[in-house]
Amino acid sequence: GAPTISIFLKPPGVIPPGGSTTICCRCQCDNGNFVLYKKGHQFRTLELRGGRVEFSISNATEEDAGAYSCHYMDGGTVLARSDTVEVIVQEFRLPKPVLSVLPGHEVDARTQVIFHCTIAHSHAGCFLYLEGQVKAILLSKEGDNYFNLSHAHKGNEGRYSCQCFTKDASSFKWSPVSKTLDLVVR
């Protein structure tokens, strides 16, 4: 079958003007090139090294915002396509949230783990990010931004962070991304 490509932002989350992020593309592939597409147009080509390539965006502006995807090419043939990752560049207008985890950073397999994102703003919603994943988790909001992981397993290990937002009729307002927190499952 065709190889699968994963695409993600490192660090994940919305970035401020002047900020930076790296678009990472990974593949169980041999030789060939990765072509980065932005809004459906070919943007940049990089040679595959060790199954991954990284495209850096620094000193970000509105021009850098948009939907990016990776295509794995051999010669002129597209062998595989990634999902799309959205780069959002916006001023931060909310305070920085704090991410905590209970019962702690190291847990035994099958333990219940609760991530909690705290922000000094009563109506903010928050996303939980796991580095290496393109999809963020929208935290449940009953006055409390938390995510309950009922049976932790090795696949839940990694570097987590959270970012909060408010939405009114015309726009989103974002917080910076919290400090990261590493979860280890024994």
From TrEMBL:
The keyword Glycoprotein applies. Residues 3-86 form the Ig-like domain. Keywords: Disulfide bond, Glycoprotein, Immunoglobulin domain, Repeat. GO terms for biological process: immune response-regulating signaling pathway. It comes from the Eukaryota. SMART domains: IG (SM00409). PANTHER family: MHC CLASS I NK CELL RECEPTOR (PTHR11738), OSTEOCLAST-ASSOCIATED IMMUNOGLOBULIN-LIKE RECEPTOR (PTHR11738:SF186). This is IGSF1 protein. It comes from Steatornis caripensis.
